[in-house]
């Protein structure tokens, strides 16, 4: 048996894989964007159990091509416009190679000092690019940490806020704690609240304009306002909560404010978009997902907090087997106490490579190019009176729908009919495999979402996507 | 600006990185295993802020070599014997390349069917290799899921158990729920309990033999026994909780039992080690970390549960933007409801590549070779009467210490003196950079831990490690 980490065999197979992925990117437009397989397809193709004897990498790669790729939805395709992007890049990929290659387990400073220190440095770099107040940076006694996803980041801050509050007002208040979000807040908040043991009846999804009254009513009912999650760029339509007035309400009631800018936060490195996070100095924590729109692969959620000690109080454990001089000296950051898990990957590496390989200038250009393409798409929709734009476009998401024939009195329920029509349209374009878009429902209206953000997307793809939509809409309207 | 995912540039830089990592493995013994940098070293070497203009990959790699590698503790070094191993392999690395390259966000089946289906398949494969009862496999209405780490897995199962219990006995019992572990249970349990909102005074770390009495006393005090975590291969000494009798106690009190075999679970694919998880059919959930001792890089925690619906009830959210036909059909697994986060990486890919590239036969051989080397090391310790083996060796961890001069009456506190001596010895060998081992404290005794498990470790490294220890011990004893 060759050693499973033999450098020469590693080299041979590694080069083979680089070519495999480079070829995949080259051929990516030949695949249907949305996988068209049926549930259970793979079980029919693979053996019942693991092989007893080794198989060659050549055989395995053939199977990846034959069995896996048809079952993949091609998030890296230039014709991918669904959900939010998952924008990979060469720099990120190289960072992942380095971090997987070193495979350090950076739970504390001592287990690999470079992993911790690089993370502190890039989080301050990125914080400054976003013009975050100094109080969120290490140089201002706050600090940033890389988590997996926003769900984890919200859970950590929520646990910190909860324990701080219970410490103040007694653990018997646990059942009284209330968490607030808007009706468009990401489901991550609800899930984090569930996991943190917040009573389900104390989770509020309310219009932001009604926050003060709702909180006041809760206080009068003997409840304890705990946590508010404001969103910059909601998942459905990219709506933006007004941070400043929300923070004022929160301040009056001593609540923790988290600002979730998972998707749109990246754009705030451009001066012209920075105003969307104005008021952030009033919040306690802030997140953006570099793995959405910052050329970084999943997972890489950037969390900044003003008061790291609140996280640490809630999340630290100090087992004997991890004791060391550096920790005892208090001169170092031990990130294990800033997150759910003990073990952690060297994620700072990929963010460092992205920042250095592209530089602030090109990162801004990249984001702007997507917004510009989204404006183009929006214009194409507006210029066709069979279609309607359904929400203000703030970044690179366009919400739209096709309109039913006007004044068709034969249809009893116009709202229902429009929704069904758009559902059919979306299924039709996604079923073609030429593009992939997703949907949402806002105030009862079914809406198609087109987000421009895949790294390989160029203007020609956007124009072609619009043509695909028009063709499918025409076919549908003439059929109905 | 070249497109950040241009296939030809990707190819060029990708090949460069493969050589970089292959060279790293080739040269790995020339680096000091434990990094010797001082806190704050990196800040002095890197610029204050992110570059405005792009930098070349050549420049960046030079900096990795000059600034990062000296700050890394080399977990892949054959001279690494600390904590538990983090055993990478070529197959795993290729799996990471594929999964990063595709960069799919597999929150539900529909977002990339292959990612979900391959995960179900490999979890059944691995479950069968471990001879888990069918009730833990998809083919028996249970199922497996890949999580990041054990902390996450325990938190998910704990939340599921908690919500099931509160559903039964009323949410006002939240404060009464009690979680049990042994005095050697991993700190992950305590952390998960903290995050899940279990009252800190209701966390019990007790000797397993005293479990029944403790639970009985809690019930009599009006508390509600909730969750028991049993460990196969504790972090400190690889002690093994007797699963069967513990499950009997738990059953009598209607508790959820989780079996944590983070490190040792991998070995149970060998028939001769399988008996260590006898009784597993009485548990509700089971974890092992493939990223410890199964040739897989961080992160890859394998969790099996008997009742996935308990997880789903506690962790599911169904926002409008994720609605789809496949989910509505209930023919598919949506893993987002089995874990904390929504977004998830295609981790099954690397596990699939490890299983296929090595096969059951070689995976067993690999694990056995480490156990054999640990036996050798244990023998070396036993044959030197200046040393003492401190705990039974069950897998590939040897706990030992150097003995102070016998009958040296000049030393007032013998226990304290022995502890200080071993602390000094560990610092001395780790400071040399020739090996890296870690420590623990059990019943007041400071113990050095030597775990054989790095992929590149061969017998000659173990023999050399022992020589290093002897030399440093001799120097220390003659000095004292």
Query: How widely separated are the two ends of chain A?
Result: 65 Å
Poorly predicted runs of chain A are: none
Q: Report the principal-axis shape of chain A.
A: globular
Q: Biggest sheet of chain A, open or closed, and with what strands and sense? A: 7 strands, mixed
Mind explaining what this structure looks like?
Two copies of one chain form a homodimer. Helices cover 42% and strands 12% of the residues of chain A. By secondary structure, chain A is of the alpha/beta class. Chain A has three domains: 7-88, dopa decarboxylase, N-terminal domain, CATH 1.20.1340.10; 105-345, Aspartate Aminotransferase, domain 2; 356-479, Aspartate Aminotransferase, domain 1 (Alpha-Beta Complex). Chain A has a seven-stranded mixed β-sheet with strand order 1-7-6-5-4-2-3, with helices on both faces. In chain A, strands 8-9-11-10 form a four-stranded antiparallel β-sheet. In chain A, 57% of the residues are buried. The model of chain A has no long low-confidence stretch (mean pLDDT 96). At the A-B interface, α1, α2, α3, α4 and α5 of A face α1, α2, α3, α4 and α5 of B.
Question: Briefly, what is this?
Answer:
The first copy, chain A, has 480 residues and is an alpha/beta fold. Chain A contains 14 helices and 11 strands. In chain A, strands 1-7-6-5-4-2-3 form a 7-stranded mixed beta sheet, sandwiched between helices.
